[in-house]
């Protein structure tokens, strides 16, 4: 498996696509934040809460699969969704840390 570089554009597209799937306006991060008057800290906090919620929902499906309440296919889909969500969250975290480090190295 090859590691792909996750760019800001890819993250924006993924976020916009997820908002469309969830019934949201399907706007990019910048335009959605501007329309709602959300600052960057609130946006990051909301994204982190969405990640936690997604992971908890996937864990519930996995637990239901252990007792036979859901099919094996649903368990696999939930596990893959959780893995994808976690990979994206780690990539975003890495980009944020990298940006912070670059800002801290700037001369004043």
UniProtKB/TrEMBL annotation:
One Pfam family recorded for the sequence: FliE
Entry's Gene Ontology BP terms: bacterial-type flagellum-dependent cell motility
Record keywords: Bacterial flagellum, Cell projection, Cilium, Flagellum
GO molecular function: cytoskeletal motor activity; structural molecule activity
Main localization of the protein described in the UniProt heading: other
GO cellular component, one term: bacterial-type flagellum basal body
Subcellular location: Bacterial flagellum basal body
Family per similarity comment: Belongs to the FliE family.
Name the record gives this protein: Flagellar hook-basal body complex protein FliE
Species: Pseudooceanicola atlanticus
